[in-house]
Write a structure and sequence with these properties.
The chain is 29% helix and 21% strand. It has helices spanning 38-49, 57-65, 84-92, 147-156, 160-167; strands at residues 10-12, 30-34, 68-71, 80-81, 111-118, 121-126, 136-138, 141-144. It has an eight-stranded mixed sheet with strand order 1-2-3-4-5-6-7-8, sandwiched between helices.
């Protein structure tokens, strides 16, 4: 398992009216909202391939091994890894995302908003083979060479990506 370092941190969060979730217990966890099937990922990747891009293999591995959810959320950040459909709907301004302005500041169309910080503020991942595939960006600045590195940095410092930008 590529993301085995997260195994002990996963907590399944099943949304229902009878269950109350204690967010205080989630600050050092990955709250898995759902898992994804290969079919769901493949369906959305076809949309992306029609534009000449692809999902980074590491992101697809994360979705199949871990799923979607929130990484070390707290009162200030959600740190949510989005579903493939949501990512593409945001990128293409389709579905419920049509006419919604997000604050991911995509500098290059070869970046997908995949990681929700909070309030429509996204970190992006590169999707162009041979150029930036799998690299992680904040406001167009590379903040991690790959998803594994990005996640491991968050596990050390939940908002490291903001501190990197202030250092530049």
């Amino acid at each position: 398992m590529h993301f085995s370092f997260l195994e002990e941190k996963i907590v399944d969060w099943i949304l229902n009216d009878k269950q109350e979730f204690n967010w205080e217990n989630a600050k050092d966890k990955f709250l898995r909202v759902n898992t994804l099937s290969l079919d769901e990922i493949s369906q959305q990747e076809k949309r992306l391939l029609s534009l000449g891009y692809q999902f980074p293999s590491e992101l697809k591995t994360f979705w199949t091994e871990i799923g979607c959810g929130y990484l070390y959320p707290n009162d200030f950040v959600d740190n949510g890894l989005e579903r493939p459909k949501t990512i593409l709907d945001i990128y293409l301004n389709e579905g419920e995302w049509a006419n919604v302005k997000i604050d991911c500041n995509i500098i290059d169309k070869s970046e997908l908003p995949f990681f929700l910080i909070c309030d429509l503020d996204y970190i992006t991942i590169g999707i162009e083979e041979g150029k930036n595939l799998g690299k992680i960006y904040r406001f167009g600045v590379e903040i991690a060479p790959n998803l594994t590195d990005f996640i491991q940095h968050i596990m050390q410092d939940v908002t490291y990506y903001n501190k990197l930008l202030t250092a530049i």
